[in-house]
């Protein structure tokens, strides 16, 4: 069984996810924790549940999703995996972080790259890597087929989609990829987004104003 714990961190109200199996093997996704209190919240939960964090993943590398990367690598002794198209996006954060008020941001580098169609193991559980660019050039999502749960980053939100006006964004591509890669998942699939509450594929197919059945053309 795959457990998913969400934390909401930093002024962007970013959702950080900790996935773990029945044996306590854990994977941290998009650590947005920046200040001491946020990091303590994460560490307290890890200690309470006796989780061994063994890997660190980014869905994409915009600032709000990577603020805790360097800290997590050091704290848990793990490697960082991203899509290769996000390497430049991650590198750019150190340049603009101070302008967003994140003085003291510590940069991190990827230790390996995620590839579309491959799988990531969370202990006994398996996540499929799905490539959904558009919000960011190398955006991936992680799908747990056994339980129909998807860590979707900033691709699909409840009643919305990821913004596409940042460097590397592509609105038309994002719409296309949501329809071809996410809307082909089972309707009961729960979408855990990078911001806001979770949703389901069934709900978004009907109600999403950008990609649902009554979407604006």
TrEMBL record:
Cofactor: Zn(2+)
Keywords (A to Z) from UniProt: Hydrolase, Metal-binding, Zinc
MF terms in GO: hydrolase activity; metal ion binding
Any Pfam family matching the protein: Lactamase_B
Domain of life: Bacteria
Domain Metallo-beta-lactamase, chain residue ranges per copy: 13-195
PANTHER family: HYDROXYACYLGLUTATHIONE HYDROLASE GLOC
Protein name: Glyoxylase-like metal-dependent hydrolase (Beta-lactamase superfamily II)
Organism whose genome encodes this protein: Algoriphagus antarcticus
């Amino acid at each position: 069984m795959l457990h998913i714990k969400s934390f909401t961190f930093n002024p962007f109200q970013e959702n950080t996810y900790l996935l773990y199996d029945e044996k306590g093997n854990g994977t941290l996704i998009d650590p947005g924790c920046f200040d001491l209190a946020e990091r303590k919240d994460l560490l307290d939960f890890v200690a309470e549940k006796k989780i061994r964090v063994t890997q660190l993943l980014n869905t994409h590398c915009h600032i709000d999703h990577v603020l805790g990367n360097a800290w997590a690598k050091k704290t848990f002794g793990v490697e960082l995996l991203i899509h290769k198209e996000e390497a430049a996006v991650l590198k750019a954060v150190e340049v603009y972080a101070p302008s967003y008020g994140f003085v003291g941001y510590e940069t991190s580098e990827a230790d390996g790259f995620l590839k579309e169609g491959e799988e990531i193991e969370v202990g006994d559980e398996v996540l499929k890597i799905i490539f959904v660019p558009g919000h960011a050039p190398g955006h991936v999502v992680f799908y747990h087929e056994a339980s129909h749960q998807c860590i979707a980053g900033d691709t699909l939100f409840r009643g919305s989609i990821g913004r596409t006006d940042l460097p590397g964004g592509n609105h038309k591509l994002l719409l296309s990829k949501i329809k071809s890669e996410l809307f082909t998942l089972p309707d009961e699939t729960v979408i855990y987004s990078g911001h806001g509450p979770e949703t389901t594929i069934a709900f978004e197919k009907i109600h999403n104003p950008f990609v649902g059945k009554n979407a604006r053309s």
